Amino acid sequence: MREIRVLPTYLVNKIAAGEVVERPASVVKELVENALDAAATAVDVTVADGGRRLIAVRDNGVGMGPEDLKLAFASHATSKIADEEELYSIRTMGFRGEALASIAAVSHAHILTRRRSEADSPSANVAGCEIEAAGEAVHPVRPAAGAEGTTVTIRDLFFNTPARRKFLRTANTEFGHIVEALARLALPHREVAFSLTHNGRQTHKLPAAADLRQRVADFFGAELADSLLAFADEGGGVWLSGLIAPPAQARASGRWQYFFVNGRYVRDRLLAHALREAYRGKVEPSRSPVAFVFLEMDPSQVDVNVHPAKIEVRFRNSQLVHSQLLGSVRERLNKANVPAVSIAAGGEEGPEDDAHDARRQSLKQALADFFKSAPPPQQRLRFGEQETDRPPPYPTSWPARRDKEQPDLDAARPADTGRPSTGAPAPAPTSEGPGRDRSRFGPAFAAPARRDAIQLHNSYIVTGNEVGLIIIDQHALHERIIFEDLRRRIATGNLAAQRLLIPETVEVTQPDKAVLAERADLLARLGIEVSEFGPNNVAVHSFPALLAERQVPVAGWMRDLLDLLAEHASADGDELLTHALATMACGAAVKAGDPLTDEEIDALLARRSQVQQAASCPHGRPTTLVLTLAQLEKQFKRS
Fold this sequence. Notes:
single chain; 639 residues; alpha+beta; Ribosomal Protein S5, domain 2; Ribosomal Protein S8, Chain: A, domain 1; 3 domains; five-stranded mixed sheet
């Protein structure tokens, strides 16, 4: 058995680096936080090769003198706190004194600093000083010429820990994480000017501003920023403010939710739950609202010494924080007169708040009507990527959801002798056969002609067999059918793509651009072609034919796909492809509220028995609910 021993300082720092320095973005975060604690009003970040080769952070803060610089790379040396009292009332971004020591343990680090003219005595500003460290070696401080403030330069990150270096992603992906880290610091510190340069090209230049909306636009685009609703509230020693998006702007993942406590970005389940509850009934359960929420409170009322990355907190009065955030956001949404989500009979959608989207949809409809006005050529039925004269095993083109202005097609359709409509009672027959006359129950209970299934509320298909009653979610089942079909097609090649007559522009962030560049092969397999179209936009030139036929909005679906790619960034190619196909199947499947013809219902049920794992959709939701005869008899008290 080995003896217990005290680890050397160098090894302790390398262990700490495993917690503090996860990737280049972690280094940027720690260095920029130090610059903010030094009262900097301008911070310039320069990186190369996604931060693996170079990270340099320059600020115009108070700077350091030679005596302070000697301790810069010492473990647990800090100017932020001095005693236990201050530990429980943190007012700075950093406080542990681990960052610089941990970074120097896995890189070549250099610090050049000079005190401000008004700091200390004038003699301290005659010249600056510098220090270097690499792994275990820390060189002595020496005089050097430099501007007021501090410049920290990190080269060859993880040069002495090659195993950690292998886990880094591509340069574009790592740069995307750096942009995200800078956004989390720039949003709450709007009085500070920031700039970011990657491989010699400046990607962000943010002047000091008091407007949060402008900072949001700088990182996430003007389209999102212009749609946000401002709110503010105060009570119980908690000051709330921020911007929230209307429910129509909800996204496919929660990565668009930013919570800040006393200027520090945090991830907190309590805050996320309060936000979700505030939007309950206004967004679909599978969507996540967009929000930028800022909380200010007495530092003694919140503990930030919970996580090595200082990204988790604990509130002394969590119930107060939860209720105040929920109430403030809900009140703001109610003042904006935001409608709740509902599914109207006949597939109608609720009113849209965004006039821009309405105009765009109107333009699309006018263009579609123009092309429909020409006599169409002789068309052949399409199934997947093959053309055939025979009908496909199931419908490949489902009717689009109706708009309010669209006439009621069911009213103009001849009476269907096969399946009665659920919207109105069927007329009672004069006779149902020998010895059977149910006309006494009234028209609503008159027996229809014998059929296999009916559609209920334009969302569910009800049928039966010898076991009992079967209720099918039409969207979930169709999603599973399309998903299995897409998996078979993509196993033999790329999916069919439709070239867009006019490329669709989509507003994206820099991290999104990095994801698109890294996953170009996956996009090609899905039938998607994109190109850069300005600093904050990409142009979509081709789109999956299956989604185009269903008239799925290009921009909205691309945003959902980007959220998916970001959420599963660490997944391998096959796993990510499966998630992408599931998202595509969900977008192309018939929706709840879409009316189906008898032929479509019959075809959907026919395919159900031919598909593996038909009991659930690709996302795990059940497609079928079975009520056995025993269960029905129990409900009717017949057992």
